[in-house]
Fold each of these.
Amino acid sequence: MKNTKLIMAEISLLVTIFLFLTGCPKTPEIYVVKEPLDSSVIEENSEIFIEDPATGIIGFETNDTKYSGGYGYTLWTEDDGIQDPFIHLNVTLKKISGNDVAGYGIIFGSYEDTMLIVLINTKKEFVIGELEGNLFTELQAWTEAANLKPGYNQSNIIDINYDPSSEDFSLTFNGDETAVVIFRDDEEPFHTTGKDGYIVVISPLDNFPGIPVSITFKKN
């Protein structure tokens, strides 16, 4: 009987330890959805990016619950025109509502399902990367930029230039030429030609259908 009680006590202790370990609160990856690498679905969806012919402003807005849960969604679209070669892109962006950490931004040099990306968020952070299919490779990790405006309903300007002689890309925010970010695209596939466009990361923490993800883009 004592042995039986001892065994039962040991089993009870093991179960308690297991429940304690598995029940410990952790911050899951789901809470850090900032870029395509974090989301489970990356797809082109031009239907959500709607251009106002009178102003040229492209509006993105959705509260569709099919984008809720999981590990987030990344949606992108591209213009019809091709820059050949790519020289310059200047876009004004404004996030009106949606998760404050999730990135949104521009694509350029897009062709055959590969492109370069610059994302920003409402926390004054930016990232530069290459998207090839569902593979996102960072060229510049998430970094704080003093010249980005934080918060919602703030207009931020992303400006990209390419110098074919040096093969350098230069990035500035809000016209601040004193804080130029230089980056390169040294590995195939190269992105010195292609289409421009826009990209939005939807976080699983976005509160659909109550609060939509709403962003505007305007090519200058």
Amino acid sequence: MKRQTLLFTLLAIFVLNFNGWASLPSSSLATVTSSGFANNTNPNNKDSFRVAQMKLFISMTADDYGKLRGKKLNFLEKFSFKASQRRMRKMLKYYEYGDGPTTLQKIAALLKGLLLGPIALLLGYLFLKDDERELMKWIWFGFAGFVAIVVVILLAA
């Protein structure tokens, strides 16, 4: 019975995770600017182009996004779409006021992942805000180092 519950839980997590990916902007949106025309970007203008894409995405309604995708959104897709819009609004707000984490913050996150391993991942996902999600990448790098060290110790023993 416990095995069935575990399998059901893993399946539910898997389905909900990929359902969230369905609300991300499609590739057809990636070529549209805030003016509504296709635009070829150069590397110098890349950040301003992404900001324009994000502003266009947060100004869309769920019906507009459904038309862009070519099908109507179901309830979970609408929820995921709204969550993505909320996250992008916060990212744009953060983009206007700051550059992101400093090098020392990145090194600290790497060391936390290296020393604490899965505990650091859990704490990072629980307590880091959306504008600090850049640090999660560094915690994952530290966790990879933690796993490598554990594997080497187990193989040496």
